[in-house]
Amino acid sequence: MGKIALVTFDKCDPCQCKDGVCAALLACKHKLIKQEKAGEIPLFSPGSCTGCGDCVRACPQKAVQIYRS
Ligand code: SF4
Ligand code: SF4
Fold it and tell me: Which CATH class is domain 3-68?
């Protein structure tokens, strides 16, 4: 059983991140998090997520959580 990170949409507020760029996106070494553009809610591609938690720690809104997959 693996672990995956996902964003909770109602907690995420990209305005809280510098220049609207998702801090979790910047923290993911595997580049599994994308934003269509700054200020948009990020999209996670959990396929090769290691569950490392770097994105969780980076998010100022505590909007990213690790789930068992
Ligand atoms: S770091 Fe958190 S609050 Fe900021 S855009 Fe990413 S998920 Fe949303
Ligand atoms: S848990 Fe780690 S690998 Fe998965 S999305 Fe977050 S930073 Fe990337």
Answer: alpha beta
